[in-house]
Every structure is written in C-alpha cells, then in structure tokens.
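User: Show me an example of a complex going from sequences to structure tokens.

Assistant: Sure. Here are the input components:
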Amino acid sequence: MPPARANEHVHFEGGVKMFLNVLLGLLALTVVEVFLAYIHVPLTLMLIILIGLSLIKAAMIIAYFMHLRFERLSLVLTLIPTLVVCICLLFIVFPDSFRAKDIRSTRTSAEPVKGSAPAPEH
Amino acid sequence: MSTEAHVGRLPATEWDGGALPYRVGHRKLGMWLFIVSDAMTFSAMLIAYSYARVSSDSWPTPFPFYPSIIFSTTMTLFLLASSFTMVMAVRASAHNRLRAARRWIGATMVGGLAFLVLHLIEWEHLIHDGLRPFRLAGEWVEKWPEAPPLFGASFFAITGLHMFHVLTGVLYLGFIALRITKTRHEDVEISGLYWHFVDLVWMFVFPLIYLMSVDFSG
C-alpha cells in the first residue's frame, strides 16, 4: 500500500452490479428522450417530460455515481436544498419572457392597443 | 493544554466522523461546494437560453434527427459510459487496486476525448454552415426569418463552457492517473466527483439544446 494511503480510512459502498444497473437505467432514459424527439411530441409536453426525465437521471448520477446516497444526511441537507432554492430563485425573472413577447407583438400589431390614446397628428 | 489545542493535534482518522460534521475531508467538501456553485452557473445559462427562446417570436430548430440528434446521442453515450468507468476507477482505488484504477481512469479519459472530438466535429459543421455567435446560418435565416440571431451565442457559450469542463476533466484525470501511487484515495474520489458533474450537466444540455431543437421539416 502506498504511504499516502497508509492511514486513510476509506468508506465506499456499492458493487459492480449496482453501478451497471444505474448505467443501464441512464441509457434507457436517454433512449426514451431520443424517441420522444423522433416521434414529434408537442413542444410543451416534450419539455415537461424531458425536464422530468433529466431530473431523474441527475438524481441517479448524484445518488449513486457521486455516492451522495452513502454520505451523511447532514451533507445532503447542506448541498441539495441550497442548490434547489438558488435555481428556483433564478426562475423569478422568467415570467418576464412571456411579457416581453406580448409587448412586442402588441407594438407591431396593426390594431391600436385597446384603451390607448390616439397617436398625435403632425 | 486546553481541550481545543489537544483536539487539534489528533489525526483526522481517530475522529471517525466525530469532528467532521459531514464525515468527508475538507478537500472533498470543497469540491462539493465548487460543484454546487458551478451547477448554479450552468443553471443560469440554461435559464437565460430558455428566456431568450420563449421571449422570441421564432427560434431556430435546426437539428435534423439524422445526423444531428444521432450524433449528439452518440456523444451522450460516450459521456455516460465514461461515468461508469470513472465509478469503477473509484471502486478499484477504494480496494487499493491501483493498476486497475489507473486503467479505468484511462478508459474514462478515452470516453471524454471521444466526446470532445465528436463535439468539435459538430462545431466545425455548424461554423462551416455559417453559424456565428451573433449571426444565423444563411439557410436558417430563410427558414426562420423572424428568429433573433441569439441561437449561435447561446449554443456556443453553453456547449463551449461544457466542452471546457470536459477538457479540464480529462487533464485532471490524466494528472491523477499519473500520480495514482502517490495520491490518497480521496483524491481519486474527488476527481470522480468532478467528472460525474460534467456528465450531470450534459443531462440537461442535451435535451434542452438538442432534443428541443429537432427540425421536423425534413
């Protein structure tokens, strides 16, 4: 054993079979995603399904490949809620994207905006 | 001697998790915190991409199922396979089978390099077609005349940053493989965490950038 490892306490769980099962699960979910793209599912429905499948795949990678399932709960509770809350906060501005599109379509429309004053004549 | 000073001199192994609230070393905890912060960076970029797409009247969907999606799916398979070989490397290292660990890390690097080569080929094709950060390819402008020229900027920025992470990961793994007899198991584990994170990010980039941009017009 190398000297660097002489006093090291190693904590590792998980066998080849478990990791192979995770890999096969990830491959199967990827095939489902690609199949959805092939059969032309409506865009909004496809987005919802793809995000759902991606979250499942991410959870599998974090839990098994990154070993977080076998770490202390305190570590999990420190890392995961922090990340989830911060990502949710990033979404705060997202509804503005719909508004921006509506504003543009209203301005470019030939129809005058309801309730607005008529344009001054020069 | 005060209790604190006495405690400070004890080797970490004697604590068996007692003094380390997370039962991981400070370097591994540091890598986890880096991963969380990097995940926020990629999240911000993907949300910005989605914002630009939703707020636009039209957005290019330029990737035909064959060859583009098949090509990017192959890249995904390489990355998934490399994650498996990496976890096998960590397992071998945990059992002090250092030669096997080095071989598994080598296989991981091959998977990462294959991903990089395929990605660069794809970039070369898109650039050859005329896609630039703030200019759409000529054919795309005819097909999606109302689309803003942001596709290139968002595509190159997100996939470029991810590609940079893959390249950094391959170099990092190469360094660990070369020094595996001098490193602790924790170092191999930390490099594995980084590599799995690179794979994790792609699990969101692939559906959002590629699968949501399939060209069905044939």
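The lines above are the inputs; the final block is the predicted structure for all two components together. The longest strand of chain B covers residues 63-64.
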